[in-house]
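Review form for a predicted model. The reviewer records the input and the model, then writes brief findings.
Reviewer: anonymous (R2)
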Amino acid sequence: MDPKLKKLIGLIALKIVLVALIVVGVTYSVMGAERKTGPLVSVDWVKENLNKKGLIFLDVRSKQDYATFHVPGAIHTDYGRDGWRVKKGAVRGMMPEPEKAAKLIGLLGIGNDDHIVIVANGYGAGDMGVSTRIYWTFKVLGHDAVSILDGGMSAYMRNRKNPLTDSRKKLPEKEFKFTLREELLATREEVIEAIENGTPLIDARADSFYLGINKSGSVQTAGTLPGATNLPIDWMVERGGFFRTPEHQKVLFATANTPTSGKAIAFCNTGHQASVTWFVGHELLGNKDLSLYDGSMADWTQNKAAPVDKKIKF
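Model under review:
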């Protein structure tokens, strides 16, 4: 073969390889970008994905706040009235039966192929707990394509140029199929076992509740679960509804003598605040052995004989 022709063929082959690598690289980059959509998304991410197919912004603020303005295309759900939490026996705030939760989600127009971004007000830790509780519910039902807007609507509103609308949107009903992840949902029996074998129990409430100084009206007896550590949720969420960095979260967990790996159970009064702890531990720090005690102290203290540790006694 003519050396010049051979060299030309070699150059053409090299270009083909380079083009293929570029295509693969771009494809990988795009796929990588998709994979980077994690538990938390930023305001900039929201703006870049406003018109993305299969993406649903779920506004969990009050009906009045939603009607005033919201992220374009967002749908609304009422956390307290739509059935995200129900009364079971004497305990309020429990997760509904999986079939009912899936029905609720389908009625909102959410299907299994949709990615959900939950938008709360972003006023603080308790407010972001609305996002984390609904997020946890999706996860319990086996739906992984769900995120939370870090900082909520208050973060989005910091730039008044960000797109807003007051046009209400309702999606057509879809079928939402669930696959129950029981490992995320701790039961009273599992808490009893945890107390007996020393499995870490994490009290997400303020220290006055943990110590037994104050008591929620939903709880029969003041105090905490025997052997529990205390990691208040307002440690983990900054003012304005932003979650602290994973590095800072690890410091906070260590300060509270609370593990970031291994089997553990988060709890509070009714499972709302503890969803923040679960979100940070399970989703941001990667402890897949952390579960949430639905019903928490409200459920635990229904049994008058159940042990409660009251650290300060009057």
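Findings: DSSP finds twelve helices and twelve strands in the chain.
Further findings: The chain has two domains: 40-156, 182-300.
Recommendation: see findings above.
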